[in-house]
Each structure stands twice: as C-alpha cells, then as structure tokens.
Design brief:
The protein is an alpha+beta fold. The chain has 13 helices and 8 strands. It is globular, with a radius of gyration of 21 Å.
Length: 320
Amino acid sequence: MINNAWDDHFIAALYEKYPKRSRLIQVLTDLLCLEREAVYRRLRKDVSFSIHEIVKISSEWNISLDQISGINSGQILFMMQPMNYINPSEDELNYLRRIVDALNHFKDFPKTEFLDVCNKLPRQLLAGYSYLNQFYLFKCNYQYGENNKVIPFSETIVSKEKAELDMDYYKAIKMVPTSHFIWDRLIFSDLVNDILYFHSIHLIADNEKELIKRDLYELLDYMLDVANKGCYPETQNKVNMYISQLNVDTNYSYTFTPEANICFIHVFDKYEFYTYNQDMVEKFRNWMQLKKRTSIQISEVDEKSRIEFFSKQLQLVDKL
C-alpha cells in the first residue's frame, strides 16, 4: 500500500475535478487508455500514478504543482489550448471531440449551466452557420495569421472534419440544461461594420457578402424564436438572453456542473484561457452573474425590448 502525501493531494485534486467517483473513473479510463480496474488500483493507491500519467492528467485538467504538493502558493494557473480551426491536426480534432462528448454528457445533470458574456457572436451560435463561422476564421487569420500573406475570404476553407465537428458542437451545446447569454448592445453593429470593411477592400466578394448576410438573417430569426420561447426549440432546454447596457470588453464564459467546473477568457478571437481552479470558477460565476444587474433580459419577459432589439439588428443587416 502506497502512502505518500503528494499522492493524497493529487487524488484529492482529481476528485475536485470530478466529485462523482464513477465519472472520474470513466474519464481517467479514456484519458490514460487504461482498464477500469487499473484506474481503481491507482485511486486506491495500490499502484502509483506514473510520472507520465501525472503529467498527462495535470496538463489536460490544469492541475497545478500546488495541488499535487498540497502547498498553496496563492497563484491561480490558466491554460490555453492552441488550435488551428481551419486545418486542425488529429490531436486538435480529438480535443474538439472530447468537448462535444462532454456537452452531450451534461444532459444527464439538470443543475449544469453555461453563461457567456460576449461582445462578438459566440462559437456556440457561429458553429451552426457556415459562412458566418468562415467569416470569423477569415477575420482572425487576417489579424493574427502567422505569415504576412493576406488570404481572402474565398480561400479560408474549413476542413470537412472540422465542419462536421462544428455542427456536432452546435447540436451538443443545446444539451446544456440552462444557458445564459449576455450580449454587448453593439454586437451586430460591430459585426456588420467588419463585413463592410473587408468587402470594401475586396477581400470579400459581392456574392460572399450576400451569403454571410443570409446567415445573419437566419441566425436572427432563430435567436428571436429562442428569445420568444425562452428555450432551444430542439431540446426545450432553458435559455436566458440579456443585452448589456455597458460595453463588454471581450468574451467570458463559464460552465458549471456538479461534477466539474471550468471558466474561460476568450482572447485573439479564437483562443481561450481556462482554469478549473474552484476559487477562480466561483469568483468568475459571481462576477458574471453581476453583469445581469446592468443588462436587460429580452427572453420571455420583456416583449417590447425584445422586439426593439431584433428589429434594430435586422435593420443593420439590411445595410449589407
């Protein structure tokens, strides 16, 4: 029987991520490619986790040296998963598949909630609209591409595997029992201005602009339907929509579930810093819930504000 203090702290950190033993065993089985009995032995401390296993788990779940050693340095570590969203590697595709699998799993946990505060359309919505999704990838590549070559919209081609995963993600996000969206009031105004700018410098052709415009109309029609019903029509899962009366600096989100907590800060349009640190997640939840104090709920309860908001957004899209 192994009785190392660090082993106790490490296993305790695993249970912080997944308090339900059955779920912890399942995710460790998948992550480490081990039999269930081998995972049981490690959690019972009959066998130690290998250095390779500890590094793999710690990297995947953002477990710090503080948690493993039991020493509190007062630091909170955030991690970032680099991602090529146009031509992802097999490892990157597997990462996206795990996200989809996790979202589909959330349907079994009614207390799970997702909240996104955003000044640009979140990936949860973009994933269902191919030309809008392509536009955001094109814009990101134009601003943050690794070379100086300017790639027009027409050449920003998403791989077939990534496109299929985008649609899986779009369907899976609707499995979350409760979702909240707090939008910057200028979210569509800024988007329309961006599209017009790239069209003016001939990186987006006339017909491509019309395709993006069509996606925008379809998205607005869909979100109006969601706001009217207060839920996703496909799954009937709850959706609360708000419009922030203060400017939103960037996109922030958290996912809370009884078996795992995580919060994200979105940077450079397509990347995310994230942490599983319980204190940080709880602070994040509190900060983001406070955003509702300076926001107007437009789903279900305020028909006048809802109609005014969507009418204004349609008028903006008309300008394209």
